Amino acid sequence: MPSVERSRPVPGVEVLRLNRPEVRNALDLASLDAVLTALREIDADPEVRVLVWSTTSTVAFCAGADVGEQLDAAGGERRMERFCELYALLDALRVPSVCTCVGNVLGAGTEIAAACDLRVAGDNLKLAWMAARRGVPVGPARLVPLVGLARAKELAFTARVLDAQEALELGLVSSVSPAAEAEAAAVTLAERVAAHDGVRELKAMFRDLERTAERVAYENQRLMAFQRHGTGLPAGS
């Protein structure tokens, strides 16, 4: 069973679905490689105007890293390298992206959602920045621009879970739909974005003005140091 599924429901809109429902779409090395390959192909395809992230199961968009994967120290470093590649590639992606936030959106799933340009929620959303619980140095690079410094600190330090309504009130998502309809809502939003010619240029301007590449590179350096010299993400727990 492939860990990633792709489709193009309407012209210009590519849907990338995570497909590991048995682990709530937690990402292991193989699925990270599949995601990175897909993103590079999407970024190079001139017919793609908007990317929609989604899932084959509304139980979770993504519950983070697959910490049950059996890895030695070198494998743990390779997995973290892949996450850093993913975060950098998401920032550099030239087309706008929309994330379908349903069910559990935790850990790396939260980082993917935050890296997207737009987000829509399912009514079953459970969203949290949980890095503080494991001491993982991730979150500020993408969270602060979304909700501001004071709110970002509160969410990151407490690791509390947000439901769909609070995510909407904070502006983290633009709409809430029944979970089974959230992907369709994301595709509809993506189709509206894809109808305009200037969105690639606007996305590049937002990226440059917010200096997101610098923020992501700084955080990626901290992540690799955490994996190599700190406690690191667990493997096979």
Keywords summarizing the entry:
237 residues, alpha/beta, 2-enoyl-CoA Hydratase, Chain A, domain 1, 6-stranded mixed β-sheet, 3-stranded parallel β-sheet, 49% helix, 17% strand
Helix content: 40-55%
> What overall geometry do the principal axes of the alpha carbons give?
globular
**Number of DSSP strands?**
9
State the end-to-end distance: 24 Å
CATH homologous superfamily descriptor: 2-enoyl-CoA Hydratase, Chain A, domain 1
Order of strands, main sheet, comes to: 1-2-3-5-7-9
The low-confidence parts are: none
CATH class: Alpha Beta
Structural class: alpha/beta
Mean pLDDT, nearest integer?
A: 96
Architecture, CATH level 2? Alpha-Beta Complex
CATH topology: 2-enoyl-CoA Hydratase, Chain A, domain 1
